[in-house]
Amino acid sequence: MPVKKIFRRMLAMCPAAWRITLASLRIGCLLLAAALLLLAAWRADPVGSRILYIRAHALNESCQALLLVSMLAAAIVEDQHTAR
User: Fold this and answer.
1) What is the distance between the alpha carbons of residues 10 and 63, in angstroms, rounded to a whole number?
2) Which residues lie below 8 Å from residue 74, measured CB to CB, with a gap of 6+?
3) Which residues contact 49 (CB under 8 A, 6 or more apart)?
4) 27-82 pLDDT, tens per residue?
5) Has this prediction a pTM greater than 0.90?
6) Domain residue ranges in the chain
7) How far is CA 75 from CA 9, 24, 44, 81, in A?
């Protein structure tokens, strides 16, 4: 199964790539939690609702961009580590 191969390869990453992955997941979870809080405040505040919604949407998109860039960085670090 390809999923098993992916998980085996992911768990065999070098420590630097693993730290990048875990740090990006932690930051991504914080960004998503902040976006969720803003969306909860958006429902409660009818006056500034447009600004809160735009900020929550931006946090959601920045989380996706962060994960994409960090996975590329982890892959580059892993490639450099295996080339040695």
Assistant:
1) 21
2) 13, 17, 18, 20, 21, 24
3) 42
4) 999 999 999 998 888 777 666 678 888 888 999 999 999 999 999 999 999 889 88
5) no
6) 14-83
7) 11, 13, 42, 10
